[in-house]
Amino acid sequence: MFRFLKKTSIFLSAILITYGVLPQSYLFQIGSTAVKADSSSSSSYLPCVENAYTTLTQHFTDSFLQGEVSSSSANAPRHTSDYAALSVKLYNATGNQLYLDNAVKAFRDIMTVLEQGPMDASKNKPLSYAVGDWFNLEPLLITYQELKPLGKVSSTDDSYIQYYADQFALFGLNRNIVGDNNQTLSRTAGVAWALNLFPNHPDAALWQKYVDENWNYWWPQRDLSEDAEGYSAIGLYEIIQIAVQTGKVDQLKDPGVKKMFDRYRDQLSTFGAMPMYGDDYFGEAWELCTYNFEYASRLYNDPMYLD
Q1: pLDDT of residue 274
Q2: How far is 194 from 190, CA to CA, in rounded Å?
Q3: Which of 21, 51, 129, 301 is the most buried (most CB within 10 A)?
Q4: pLDDT at 31 exceeding the cut of 70
Q5: What is the pTM of this model?
């Protein structure tokens, strides 16, 4: 059943992205199941991801990628970061130099915009909207973490990345953006990544405060309150990422947390499809559900999540 979900979700999402039903950012989520999940079964559908990547990124020029970063749309900046992160993960999985070149190109496009001016979100300056894009920091830092050991990150890049991470965290903290929804948890996961990468940053204590506030908001109910298929899948995925980044994986073994995973597992139909419900887009949850259930199978040593 679940193997059907894996392969069908990749092809369906590729079609939906191609025809504009899903945003380009879901290219990264397609890839997360094959190159981000630490799964022995990843190689079986990695070629599908590579084919989708080739088809969907042909028009990704520098001007397009930079335009996404500096766009006035709050949903656009993440597209370039998602593309960069997926590219570098595919490089790690395949050793294909093309993916590394694409990751470096996208990272340089991000830095080009980043270096144009201040990122005060209260002003109409470059990346003011990127600071407000809940999903942007996490894939950007994944890219940074992978490229830095390869000598692709300069000291100037380092300074701007840390400054951006700080602005991103303070945006959430100063506006009291606390909750268990997909947007807030995605922002929290990005800040948790920043804490691991830059633990000595002058504002690290404030970053930690923000991460703790959101984890402590979620922990009492050990579940998500959103009523949409895709948004809940993102939220569950980000809970995993926050736990991994903050050393709280053992807390995920709590029986109450397992009930949360069980609730989503029980939504699967007998042939591996997820029901479409709530204020969301059709079919977008499948890729992250694949990752979430594979992770749950390892966490709880329960093969039922893979079935």
Answers
A1: 74
A2: 6
A3: 129
A4: no
A5: 0.83
